[in-house]
Description:
Layout: E1 6-10, E2 20-28, E3 34-40, E4 46-49, E5 51-53, H1 62-74, E6 76-78, E7 82-90, E8 98-110, E9 124-128, H2 130-137, H3 140-158, E10 168-169
Amino acid sequence: MLVMAEFRWVDAAVPAGMKITQVYAVTLDRDGRVMLRLEKKLDGGIRYSLAGGRPEAYDNSIGDTCRRELLEEVNTEIETPVCIGYQLVDEEDGTPAYAQVRMAALIRTIGEKKPDPDNGRTYDRLMVSPEEAVRLLDWGDVGKAQVMKAADVIYQEYGIRYSGKPEEWV
Length: 170
């Protein structure tokens, strides 16, 4: 019998002691657009995602993990990231549930594209409206909750709104 993991969005901080297996960020520019990372699949298709990855032993916090992963994957510097919640993952195999953290951050600078030191891949980056990010990520209601909360947090924190600026490759 195949056991499927259960994913549930939790709009809160990760409880103390819960294992964190990934930290991903919804990053926005000052025009209120979301940065998506594009991954080219072997079949020629494209998969849209957020930048992020695993916490490492040398990271002092999930914020450090977030900053490091954004630099490694999309060569982007951010202002202080804010935790907006996490996906609670239950493998339904008797092991403890764990957290996949989601953060919101305002982009400070976007550097030239360069290979990710972890896997050697260079990712394209696309800036889109929050609504278009929801559509392209195609994560359903959970993804929509994450993207829209991140946009709200950044809009409130920095006093910006979506400017209507069109999508752009960066």
